[in-house]
Amino acid sequence: MAEQIFDFDPAELLDSDEAIETFITEALQTGDAKFIASALGVVARAKSMSKIAKETGLAREHLYKALSENGNPTLETTLAVMKAIGLELTTRHHAI
Fold first, then answer.
1. What pTM was computed for the model?
2. 15: phi > 0 → left, psi -120 to 50 → alpha, else beta; which?
3. How does pLDDT run across 22-68, given as a tens digit for each residue?
4. I need a labelling partner for 26 at 20 to 30 A (CA). Which of 10, 17, 36, 59 fits?
5. Domain boundaries, the chain
6. Based on the number of CB atoms within 10 Å of its own CB, is 5 exposed (0-12), middle (13-18) or buried (19 or more)?
7. 38 with 47: CB under 8 angstroms?
8. CB 52 within 8 A of CB 63
């Protein structure tokens, strides 16, 4: 019997605001900038990259590149995408 390999896109699982919030929160907790950018890209795909591009005023191609595993989005791009997907960046003090 031949082994089947299936493509998996986590964007397909992000079907609610709660799922998106949990996904991004966990990504932020890693402290890994590239992982966070990639996670924002997954959410942008889940919400429709074309819609995010329109809402942010940024080109779709720019968003795909900036929000990839090897992307390095500016803070401006990151904040614009977060706003477009309905999230905001907040701070919280924690003991060191």
1. 0.81
2. alpha
3. 999 999 999 999 999 999 999 999 999 999 999 999 999 999 999 99
4. 59
5. 20-84
6. exposed
7. no
8. yes
